[in-house]
Design goal:
The complex is a heterodimer. By secondary structure, chain A is mainly α. Chain A has one domain. Chain A is 82% helix and 0% strand. Chain A is built from 9 helices and no strands. The longest helix of chain A is centred in the C-terminal third of the chain and has 31 residues. Chain B is mainly alpha-helical. Chain B has one domain. Chain B contains 6 helices and no strands. The longest helix of chain B is centred in the C-terminal third of the chain and has 50 residues. Chain B is globular. Chain B starts with 6 loop residues before the first helix and ends with a helix. The relative contact order of chain B is 0.15. Classes of the chains: A mainly alpha, B mainly alpha. The interface between A and B is medium-sized, with 26 and 27 residues.
């Protein structure tokens, strides 16, 4: 348990001290929204109608951008070998790395979401559901991103391949994330049920992704 | 069946079976197309364009079948580390991707006259599109990783994860669809198919399956031969390097 806490603390610290922290991902998120808003035009009703999908798309793309360094740096400087030697099972270490990624990249994105939603004129009653659905759905993004990162661990330039691998896996979380937010904002009675499915997707990813990622890391390092 | 796990025996079997499989495919395609184009009725609603079904539906079957076969080979290769299973999975991917693309293209050609649109974000269409991307990702993994054994393990892992995810993706798109567009373009309770249409459909289905086995045998034999050449080249290079240094 101590080792896992140490991995999380180290990764978060590293992200904020050496990697510019959450700034690159949040900037990317903000710029996606900016480009989207400029492309959609100043028509307010249209922006409002598309604001929830735009926020989810921007957050997902920003998250996808950050996956390719999840294990690569550790692999290159040898700390991944140290983790493999000391942490058993390796899947737990993968989960810790994914948690650190969520804390250092996705949590800032979630915090930035309401500000960007404000720019898109998202109605007031949608902010609660937006935050809740992002909180429940984004762990799946980090976990599946960790899996894709582990699969492409040994490759030099893997970002495009990684996008191809992750995008199909991320579709359920995005679909239910947007559905939950819209249901919550519109007072749909199915809101609770959709949130539960969203949480189920994250929990399922929590079971599947660390195991598969640990296997991929072993294959890629021996 | 177990004997075929030996690459040499497989090679001999595949060499003998390929012409038969190819001839069978050709015969069934000619027969199937004859029934499909000349000896089956036009649909009372869809008219002549119903005939696209005979090239489209088998392609969609094969798209799923190939992915399942790939996943099965991947599981076998993953658990028993059998090289032939890896070769089978690798060789299945491009064929499956081609069938998937064929299903997408013919589906869209069929959709235009039937629904008035080339594309609908219907659950089935969307899942097949996602399936196509999964084939692409799988093949990209194989070509990106130099070491064959490692590529086989990693690609197998990606394939299995993708296979687990196909039903989830299908389910979520179904849900998404029911939430956004209540009136779906495809009715769930479609008319049951008449035997005059079923005959060409099944003939074409078997023809596609034989096309698949023919291509698979050829592609697996090529892959096995390539690996043998690579091994021989490595073996012949090794002593000369020793003498130079």
């Amino acid at each position: 348990m101590n080792a896992l806490a140490a991995i999380v603390a180290r990764d978060v610290k590293l992200a904020f001290r050496a990697g510019g922290g959450a700034v690159p991902a949040v900037m990317f998120f903000a710029l996606t929204i900016l480009i989207f808003a400029l492309a959609a035009g100043p028509d307010r009703p249209r922006l409002i109608a598309l604001s929830i999908p735009a926020i989810w798309t921007g957050a997902t793309l920003a998250a996808m951008l950050s996956f390719d360094r999840l294990f690569q740096d550790d692999h290159e400087d040898g700390s991944l070998d140290a983790i493999m030697e000391t942490v058993d099972p390796l899947a737990a270490a993968v989960a810790a790395k994914a948690l650190a990624h969520w804390l250092s990249t996705l949590l800032p994105l979630i915090l930035a979401a309401p500000v960007l939603a404000l720019l898109l004129n998202l109605p007031g009653e949608a902010y609660g559901p937006l935050m809740l659905s992002l909180l429940l759905g984004t762990p799946a993004l980090s976990l599946l991103g960790a899996l894709a990162s582990a699969l492409t661990l040994a490759l030099k330039r893997a970002s495009v391949l990684m996008t191809v691998l992750t995008a199909p896996l991320l579709t359920p979380a995005v679909i239910f994330g947007v559905s939950a937010t819209e249901a919550g904002a519109g007072g749909d009675p199915r809101y609770g049920a959709i949130l539960m499915i969203l949480a189920a997707i994250s929990l399922f990813a929590c079971v599947l992704a660390p195991l598969a990622a640990a296997a991929a890391i072993r294959f890629n390092t021996d | 069946m177990y004997d075929l796990a030996n690459p040499d025996r497989f090679d001999r079997f595949a060499r003998a079976a390929t012409p038969w499989s190819a001839a069978g495919a050709l015969l069934l395609i000619v027969l199937g197309l004859y029934f499909a184009l000349f000896n089956s009725p036009a649909d009372y609603q869809q008219g002549e364009s119903v005939r696209i079904m005979y090239v489209h539906v088998p392609a969609a079957w094969m798209a799923l079948m190939c992915y399942s076969a790939m996943a099965l080979s991947s599981v076998i290769g993953f658990i028993w580390k059998h090289p032939l299973a890896d070769v089978a999975a690798k060789s299945t991917a491009p064929i499956g991707a081609a069938f998937t693309l064929l299903a997408l293209i013919t589906g869209s050609l069929w959709g235009k006259p039937m629904w008035g649109t080339w594309w609908a974000w219907d659950a089935r269409l969307t899942s097949v599109l996602v399936l196509f991307f999964m084939y692409i990702g799988y093949m990209a993994l194989w070509s990106a990783i130099e070491d064959k054994t490692r590529a086989a393990r990693i690609a197998a892992l990606a394939c299995i994860v993708g296979f687990i995810n196909v039903p989830i993706i299908k389910f979520s798109v179904d849900w998404w669809n029911s939430l956004h567009q209540p009136a779906s373009v495809i009715r769930a309770d479609g008319p049951t198919i008449h035997s005059s249409m079923l005959t060409p459909l099944l003939l074409m289905g078997f023809a596609y399956a034989l096309v698949f086995t023919t291509l698979l045998f050829m592609s697996m034999r090529t892959e096995l031969a390539e690996r043998r050449i690579a091994r021989l080249e490595a073996a012949s290079r090794a002593p000369s390097q020793v003498s130079v240094t």
